[in-house]
Amino acid sequence: MDAKHINSIASQIYRRFPEVSGSKPKVVQRSAAQAKSASTAPTYVLTFRGTARTPDGKSIPRVVRVTASASGKVIKVTTSR
Fold first, then answer.
1. CA 69 → CA 2, 31, 41, 45, 77, distances in Å?
2. Percent of the chain at pLDDT above 70?
3. 44 pairs with which residues across the strands?
4. Per the structure, how many domains does the chain have?
C-alpha cells in the first residue's frame, strides 16, 4: 500500500475519530488466508492509537483498526470504547 492511500484513509479516520488525529497508523499486510477471504488480493490493517476524554474528565486509550484493500478502499472499521 502506498503513502497516498494511507494518507487518504488516515484523513477519513481523523475526521470520524478526532481523538486519534495526528497519530501515524501502524500498517500490517494480511494475506488472503489470514483474512478468510475468497479473494487472492492482500488486505491491510491500519491501527491508530490515541487518547479520549470521558465526560468526567478521565482519559482512556482509543484504538481504531481499519481493514483496507491494496487500492485504498476501506472494508471495515472497528474501534475500542
1. 11, 11, 8, 9, 12
2. 89
3. 29, 68
4. 1
- Residue 51's nearest CA partner among 36, 61, 66, 40 is 61
The model's pLDDT over 12-38, given as tens digits with 9 standing for 90+, comes to 999 999 999 989 999 999 876 565 655
**2 grid coordinates:** 502506498
Boundaries of domain holding 60: 3-79
Residue 47 near residue 63 (C-beta atoms within 8 A): yes
Cell representation of residue 11:
484523513
Instruction: Decide: 67 and 48 in contact? Cβ < 8 Å.
Output: no
For residues 19 and 49, the answer to whether their CB atoms sit within 8 Å is: no
Prediction pTM value: 0.83
The three grid cell numbers given for residue 61, joined into one nine-digit string: 486509550
| Helix, strand, coil in percent for the chain, rounding step 5 | 25, 40, 35
